[in-house]
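Example record

The entry below shows one chain as it appears in the dataset: sequence first, then structure tokens.
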Amino acid sequence: MIVFRRLWSTLYPRVEFEQLAYRRRLASRVLVIHFGAMLVWLVSVLYLEWSVVDVSFVPPAANLAAAVAGVLVGLLAWLCIRRNRPVIAGYLLALVPLSLGTLNLLLGPSTIHFTSVTWLVSTVMAGAVIGAGAAFAFAAFASLMTLGSFLLARAGGLGSIAQLTPESAAIFLLSVPIASIVTAVIISMLSAQVQRTIDRLHSQAQRLSSLANTDPLTHLANRRYLLEQLDREFARARRYHRPLSLIYIDLDGFKAINDRHGHLYGDDVLQGAAKALSGILRTTDLLARIGGDEFAVLMPETEVGEADKVTDKLRRALAAYGNRLGGRVGLLTFCAGVATIHPEDDTIEGMLQRADEALYLAKNDGVGQTRSEFDVRAAAD
């Protein structure tokens, strides 16, 4: 079973998302070549059959039917490309020259020189669109077919094959397998290089995305990423009528810590505070640093009352971290403003404004206070 799975993964490789666009473009270009090759194949085979005296005649109707079948397979491959199935499209395209060459060989065994070229084309197509494993499989098939057809042609005394000297026969028998295998090796190396390039670009893109979405000091999400996630969660909450809460946090007296101990020590305190706050949150919650000593917590599936309880836990976690500093900064506290989504909200701006107003009210009421948007409404009334 393990061997079968490995063989299947080699012959039918999984196309990662980063490779899908590349594979589709490559398959589309091979498809264009395929349709052109159908015309070239038909003209060349008919020319050989009608021009070379010592070659068995292949009925033109067979050539025409094979070319039409090749066009139909090409259309099917086009549908597979449009449906993001480049591997299937690659097999369809690679099997056409393989099948046509084999059919031509069966109808005219002495045309082995021509059919060996079509098998090499199938190896190139398979390796380019599908992968290295398919290229080696097609190369092996081409080698076996070359040997079998050569032996049949020699046994039947057909055409120029029967007139070859032992040395010439050995050279011919070795030329097709060597050409096919070398082609598969080259394609394998190129495919590996392309994969390494894609992986490197993907890694660079991930690093750039991380830099764009991460606060460099605390390694929390930054304001940009918070707004992106808030917009996504806001849309989901509105669609499915689910709760969503947002907490704005402002550390109390942090400027005094910077003035007394310096900004480097203040940065250390911010890093420790970020770890303390994030340690008690759920994996579905998002803690972000949105300013100097300002943080925000996005909490999906959370009502205002539950967000208030989480704020109390955050306050205790921050105070515990301050106690571990040995009294250098005193009691670490914060003020918080809590807002929730409303059915009438069309955009996130209203929710952001309510959280900001609640935080402003909490800071006006003193140190270590928490206020919600309902407190703001009650104060206004």
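Notes for this example: Residues 156 and 265 are 91 Å apart (CA to CA). The chain has 13 helices and five strands.
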